[in-house]
Specification:
Length: 537
């Protein structure tokens, strides 16, 4: 009996290893397939990867090696350590063999790894030689196609810009001819045509350069070994655009805030402008506020509101918190301060003149040595047109520091007094001179009969008396013409009365000289008196 039990125990021990291997042998393997051919299989997992995932990853890595035109199979390396046998290519891991893999083979882990390494080198040599020739031919064909497409696009761009240029030239020529028929300066217009042609050529050149630049990444991407260059070239364009797009998206909340502030300010300015226009047109009035103050006041308030708006939105501007942006704004502020001192003084003077109201547009004025009509008045300058049609620009600071004479402000209410002075000798009665001057004034067109002209005796000189005729007019813009007519009438009235307007310096020694009036006004038979010479005893 003991021998029988001993025999059964030996039989159990002999059979038990076979039973333990059955589930292992029955485990399905997951193949690594290269060019539709199974290279080997994985039966176990490794790390976090299941056998299926492990086989897929290794297949992808090996196919990636095949597609590399710079791949050399002899560069594959096999290293062993205590737990793994690793096959690498230029420091890149292809796959590893672990102890569990050897349990599905009669070989040890190192021997199994040596077999995989030898098999992989042989298969990859054959596969890369076949793949390289075929893939290179395809890649060269694709490159030729891209190059041909680039040539076609460049030709198309040239034709398109040539057509656009011809259309512009033809349209321009027709317009110039039409303008020339209407008397427009066609020569000046023709000088713009070369500029437009040059601009078209620049745009065409930029488009062609852009096409060439965008085609280079496509060409480089065709060949595996130049794909990094393609990625880099695209990055030069895509990365800035991506940064701009992301910056714009991040700026949208601030942009909405800026838009709200601008819209509110804009409508406030429009409302104030409406009120100013109504005051100017006389729709309603404000006590002690003149209508001609409305628009200048509106302009000042508008500038203040927009300046305040800029101060409010400044923190929301992109880059406003950077040192560069702040430095540029300070630099511009310093330049503005140093370069606009005279402009600011003129602006301040313009504001002061606005509220002083010394004159308004359309008034006849004398500013310094300039006399004429005001045709423009703003914060910086005042423009005057003289009676000779000379447009003279005067800085407001010069007007404020000098004196201004307004001939129009009281002409319609009190009347503008025109005056002229003549000198007559003491031998003529002053009553006669007064009457003749007043008659001459009343005979002048533009002189008002009421209030009546009057005469002032301004000087009692050594040889004569100064008589000043003063007459009212409500037409200050015709001052020069009225003065001329007044002087002509004074001559006529004095000649008719036989009173000569002559310097007493002459008449005091004239003795035998004739009277100095026109012959038509001399008495009939008039003869010059002889010289009275008294012979001394």
């Amino acid at each position: 009996m003991p021998k029988f039990y001993t025999l059964l125990l030996c039989l159990f021990i002999a059979i038990s290893p076979v039973k333990a291997q059955k589930p292992v042998a029955a485990t399905p393997g997951y193949p690594v397939i290269i060019n539709k051919d199974t290279l080997f299989k994985f039966y176990t997992a490794q790390g976090l990867f299941t056998p299926t995932e492990r086989a897929q990853i290794v297949t992808k890595r090996i196919n990636g090696l095949i597609q590399r035109l710079d791949f050399v199979a002899d560069s594959l390396k096999l290293t062993h350590d205590s737990a793994l046998s690793v096959i690498t290519y230029k420091s890149e891991i292809v796959f590893a063999v672990n102890e569990q893999d050897s349990k599905f083979s009669e070989l040890s882990r190192k021997a199994l790894a040596d077999n995989y390494y030898t098999l992989l080198k042989q298969r990859l040599k054959t596969a890369t030689e076949t793949y390289n020739l075929k893939e290179l031919a395809i890649q060269v064909g694709e490159a030729i196609l891209v190059f041909a497409l680039l040539i076609f696009l460049i030709w198309l761009v040239n034709r398109a810009f040539a057509w656009i240029g011809s259309r512009i030239v033809n349209s321009w020529t027709r317009r110039v001819d039409a303008l020339a028929q209407k008397g427009a300066p066609a020569n000046y217009v023709n000088r713009l045509l070369p500029f437009i042609n040059t601009l078209l050529r620049v745009v065409k050149f930029v488009v062609i350069i852009l096409l060439v630049y965008l085609s280079l990444p496509v060409l480089f991407y065709i060949f595996p070994w130049t794909k990094p260059i393609a990625t880099q070239l695209l990055g030069y364009v895509i990365n800035p655009l991506k940064s701009i797009a992301l910056a714009f998206l991040r700026y949208i909340p601030n942009l909405l805030t800026v838009l709200v502030i601008y819209v509110v300010t804009r409508y406030i300015v429009k409302f104030i402008g409406f009120i100013a226009t109504e005051i100017k047109n006389g729709a309603f009035t404000i006590r002690n506020f003149y209508p001609d103050w409305a628009i200048p006041t509106y302009n000042i308030i508008r500038v203040i509101l927009y300046a305040f708006m800029f101060v409010v939105i400044f923190p929301y501007l992109p880059g406003s918190q950077t040192k560069v942006f702040q430095g540029v704004t300070v630099f511009l502020g310093v330049l503005f301060s140093f370069g606009s001192s005279s402009a600011i003084s003129n602006m301040v003077a313009g504001i002061v003149l606005t509220y002083m109201r010394p004159f308004k547009v359309g008034d006849r004025v004398r500013l310094g040595e300039v006399t004429g009509d005001v045709i423009e008045k703003n914060l910086l300058i005042t423009r005057v047109r003289t009676i000779k049609n000379e447009d003279i620009t005067i800085p407001n600071s010069s007007i404020l520091s000098g004196h201004a004479v307004n001939y129009t402000s009281s002409a319609k209410t009190l009347g503008l007094i025109l005056h002229s002075t003549i000198t007559i000798g003491y031998d003529m009665p002053w009553q006669t001179i007064h009457r003749l001057l007043i008659d001459a004034a009343l005979a002048t067109e533009g002189i008002q009969p009421e209030p009546k002209p009057f005469v002032l005796q301004t000087e009692l000189n050594d040889f004569n008396v100064g008589y000043q005729i003063n007459a009212y007019t409500d037409m200050p813009k015709k001052m020069a013409l009225i003065y001329s007519e007044l002087h002509k009438n004074i001559q006529d009235k004095f000649n008719e009365a036989g009173v000569e307007i002559m310097s007493p310096h002459f008449t005091s020694i004239r003795d035998g000289n004739g009277i100095q009036i026109p012959d038509d006004y001399k008495p009939e038979g008039y003869k010059s008196p002889g010289f009275n010479v008294n012979k001394a005893e």
